[in-house]
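Batch job 17 of 40 flagged for manual review because the log was empty.
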Amino acid sequence: MGNISFTSEFFAGNRRRLHELFTGTAPIVISANGLLQKASDEAYPFHQDRSFWYLTGVDEPNAVLVMDKAKEYLILPQQGDVKNWFDGAVDLDLVRRVSGIDTILDEKEGWRQLEAKLHHVRHVATLAANPKYMEAFGLYTNPARAEVIRRMQETNPKLELLDLRSHITKMRMVKQPQELLAVQDAIDITLAAIKDAARRSKLDAYSFEYELEAEFTRGIRRRGATGHAFEPIVAGGPRACVLHNTRNASPLKDGELIVVDVGAEYNHYAADITRTLVKGKATKRQHDVVAAVNDVLEFGINQLRPGASYAFYEQQLRQFMGEKLRKLGLIKSISDDAIRQYYPHAPHFLGLDVHDAGDYHLPLEPNMVVTIEPGIYIPKEGIGVRIEEDVLITENGAKVLSAGLPRLLV
């Protein structure tokens, strides 16, 4: 792999760009994620707030970044002896080297300085907290942002919050050279692992979905990935009609299609690649559905270019999908409702998150990375098909970063 190093200049440059976009004089306060309880005294594996990492390079939980004009500092939580014994002490020199921030304060001193400032300002700029519970996804959100905001407003009840999310989104949408190299490394690891795990001699020998998942996990880890960028999906037969079927626990049967939606995480950046495989021999109908999805994918890639409206692009993609669904005999007339029965999802941005920060109302620009992932799902036939590529927007069009992996059934 490229051994991409994100130096302190990268993170300091991101902080400077944020200052330039914000233009205001209010202090900027950004929270890291906090640890979440898994069981008893055990936490879930820590996953840093990607915007906090983008500005600092720091992977410590419960940290706070303060940017007050030319002054900036990090507040780190108190580390007791017991926590140090079990988890290891924080290397403050390493934090300084990575972030480019010289001043690191413990929680007591850091909040004393921050609160002194908050008493004398009307506004503070931060990343607004998500709702405690996101009903559409069935998720409780990490409470760290909300807790930092609560504490600041408790210090100064008249404090008004300025939301920086749109600024951070615009920054993260357009990838810098180091980011593109990291994304490409994550993609290359993923491609190599899929090729190895899905070789015909291996594929026909798997009895359960988790065996294919385990082989993929082994493949990405031995090639240098941190792990999975998201929970891998290995779904055979009718289970592939559930888009995020991550249980991966069912038997694999001869003649069933298998949707494999996986992505390695490398140096914090994600890949997201999907292929539809078959164990044994595919039917003509299965071949036809896979070919239709591939045609939609090719059409979508050819429509991508700088300046294109994402909403208009998606509309074109869905219209073309409607034509394919009609040819397959699945719908009689093309309408959004009819298409949604068989193709209920859409493309997305890719980067630090697999569904990366992005404003879908803005036109596409060079150095944005998006996924194109058409699919057709026919529960009554037990057929689910999805094919996904990771694509870079270039000066003149688009480049498939995940090329080189067959899309059609073999």
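Reviewer: the log was empty due to a logging misconfiguration, but the result itself is present. The chain has two domains: 8-171, 174-400. Unflagging and moving on to job 18.
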